[in-house]
Fold each of these.
Amino acid sequence: MESYDFYEKQRYRIRVWTEIEKRCKTPKALRTVVYLDTREALETMFLLKRGYNPQRLLAVNREPVEVALLTQKLDRLGYPRVLTAGVEWLRVLEERRLGRDRIDVLQFDGTSNLNLALINLLRESLSW
């Protein structure tokens, strides 16, 4: 796996989350955030440092080993654990919709192929 810890990605992360924070009305500590992350836990550590509540963060990666290693890294570095899902985005959104869990921010970094089912779930998820 290539590392996501490089200057351009760090700048991108700052720009994206600065824009999200400008637009989202829900306070950071109360926001439910569903986002892509890897074993490096870079996105998770970034969000925790910015004041997000670990109990309201859901790190997603379609590879279960990635989120397992993410949790291990957080433990090793003394960060609080976050929720994780080692499944495809479509499944995460279906489960969140069925549970009627509100999602305030969805940041999947454009890594999935968009299809009609995913677009509909995105629309429904963000309108709760």
Amino acid sequence: MTVKPCAASLLVLALAVAGATEILAQSRIASAKSLRCSFPRNATGTWTKDGMPEATVRSTALVLRFDSIEPDSGTAQLRNGSVGTEVTVRLAEGYLHFMQAFRTGPLYVTTVFDVGDKSATLKAVHSRHEYFAVPLPGATSSPEQYYGECEIVP
């Protein structure tokens, strides 16, 4: 089978554009040094007395700020007011993951996806893997997942 020169040129051009598009898309989060994330929806999971899983979805107002993001060294700061906590960060093909493992057992993970409607807004999800048999008022007592978006902060 032979490929005509015109078709071959179009194929090379299409592959170049696809590769450039992927590089440009990843560079948006790869170069981000600070993110402000807002999560207006939350799903909380639990298990009934029968052991069946169930979830409740509701509105929420969770805001997370990640600063000093350094994917090469795997570090970032999660800011809460003036207090900062070091978290692990990993960049992988259009995904930016922030992980916080507590010595007491829980794991919190925030993933920022390199997709969004505006140039500086990115879709994101924040998950809290935590469970207490007796719920604690005002604390995460059951697995939670938050849905929202992050903006790159200059």
Amino acid sequence: DKTADYFDGDTYIQHNPRVPNGKEAFVAAFRQIFAQNPQRHSRITQSIAEGDLVALHVHTVTGPQDRGVAIVDIFRFDANGKIVEHWDVIQPVPESTASGNTMF
């Protein structure tokens, strides 16, 4: 909960269709995710910052046998440097790609 207080501003607008607005909903969503998937972890592979926006390209897996998902998170920060808005796009990592390139 302290992490959310540190990062999330007083207003937290959520654009993920499965998570409600607000800090409490953010904390509850991640508590549930980690309770269901205790081995879940994420690795940030790219980051971009411009003005009050930060975008992260993330590889998230739920365990050693999981190929995982590619996530692009976009965060908007307030003047105090706290997250006040979030968007994300999530795509499963395929076994292979037409180009032969990885997603990361």
